[in-house]
Amino acid sequence: MTHFKMKDKTALVCGAGGFIGGHLVKRLKAEGFWVRGVDLKFNEHAETEADDFAIGDLREQSFVRAVIDRPFDEVYQLAADMGGAGYIFTGENDADIMHNSATINLNVLDACHKRNIKRVFYSSSACMYPEHNQLDPDNPNCAEDSAYPANPDSEYGWEKLFSERLYLAYNRNHGMQCRVARYHNIFGPEGTWDGGKEKAPAAMCRKVAMAPDGGQIEVWGDGKQTRSFLYVDECIEGTLRLLRSDFEGPVNIGSEEMVTINELAELVIALSGKDLGINNIPGPLGVRGRNSDNRLIREKLGWAPEQPLADGMKTTYNWISGEIDRKHNLRKAS
C-alpha cells in the first residue's frame, strides 16, 4: 500500500469509482487529506485524484481488512449495488441488491470497529421512506421521523433501512461516531448516463441530447410523478458537514425544489434549445411523490442545499452532450 506522511489527515472512500465517490475524493484532496479510494473499478468518466486506489470487492472480508489496514480520520461508505428505476424497480435484481450491499456494510463496519475508527459516514437513501407516505405527488411526507412504521417500495429501500440501523447500533454498542444521511436523487457531471443504471436527470439529458430537433423523447409513466434532485457539490458539502458534526442522523441530504418528471424533461429541452415533444410511455416508476424535508438538517447543521435545479442541470446537460459528441467522433475516427 502507498505510504503517507504522518501529519496528513487520512480518509478512506468506499465506492470511490462511482459518481459521488469521485467528487468526494476531489473535495477531500482539496482540503489536504491523504485519500485512499476503493471500488470494483476506476471511475469511467474522470481520472481519480486519490493518493492510493485499491481495486477489489468489498464483499470479500479479506479485501476489506487489507484496505482498512490502519486508522483513518474519516471513512465514507458509499459503495452499494444500485441504479435508477430501470434497475431497482423491475424486481429482477432484488437478491443481488440486498445481498451485495448488506455484505459490504457488514464487512466495512466490522473492520472499522476493529481498527478503532470512530468517524464513519454511511449514505442511505430516500428510497427507505414508506410507500404510503409518498402516494400523493403534490404532498409527499419525507420527514426523517416518518420512516416508521417501515414500508419501503423496493428491496433496495429495505436494505438501506437495515444498514442505517446497523451503523447506529455500532454507535450505541461500540462507542463509534457513525453518521447516516438519506440522499435524495444526486446528479451532476462525471456520472453514469447510459446503460440502464443511470438516474432520471442523466437519462433525460441523454435522451434530449440525442433526439433530432423536431422529434420526441420518451418519459416513463404519465410524467406527473414528483421528485427533487440535488446537485453533487451540495451533496458533498452536506456529507462533510454531517460527518464532522455531533449529530448522528439519520438526516435528509436533498433539495426541496420538487418538480414533476415532465417538468424535468421540459427544463432539459429548454436548456438544449431544441423543439421536442414528450411521449409518456409505460415503465418502472417508484413512488408517486418524493421531496426532501430539510427542517431537521437546518436545525442540526445550520445549513441546507439552496442551488436552483436549473443551474445544476445546465452543467450536467452540457457535460453529457459533450460526452455523446466525443463518443460519436471516436466512432467516426475508427
Walk me through this protein's architecture:
It is built from ten helices and 13 strands. The longest helix is centred in the last third of the chain and has 25 residues, at 309-333. The strands form four sheets. A seven-stranded parallel sheet has the order 3-2-1-4-5-6-11, with helices on both faces. The chain has 334 residues and is of the alpha/beta class. It is 39% helix and 15% strand. The relative contact order is 0.13. Helix 1 links the parallel strand 1 (10-14) and strand 2.
Number of domains: 2
Distance N to C terminus = 38 Å
Sheet with most strands: strand arrangement: 3-2-1-4-5-6-11
| Structure classification | alpha/beta
SSE pattern: EHEEHEHHEHEEHEEEHEEHEHH
Percentage of residues in strands: 15-25%
CATH superfamily of the largest domain: NAD(P)-binding Rossmann-like Domain
Q: Could you state the oligomeric state of the chains shown?
A: single chain
Q: Round the Cα radius of gyration to an integer and report it.
A: 20 Å
Give short descriptive properties of this protein.
334 residues, alpha/beta, Rossmann fold, UDP-galactose 4-epimerase, domain 1, 7-stranded parallel sheet, two-stranded parallel sheet, 10 helices, 13 strands, 39% helix, 15% strand
Give a short synopsis of this structure.
The protein has 334 residues and is of the alpha/beta class.
Q: Topology, pairings included?
A:
Layout: E1 10-14, H1 19-30, E2 34-39, E3 52-55, H2 61-67, E4 74-77, H3 85-88, H4 94-114, E5 120-125, H5 155-174, E6 179-183, E7 186-187, H6 200-210, E8 216-220, E9 226-227, E10 230-231, H7 232-243, E11 251-253, E12 259-260, H8 261-272, E13 277-281, H9 295-301, H10 309-333
Parallel strand pairs: 1-2, 1-4, 2-3, 4-5, 5-6, 6-11, 7-10, 8-13
Antiparallel strand pairs: 9-12
Helix pairs in contact: 1-7, 4-5, 6-8, 6-10, 8-10
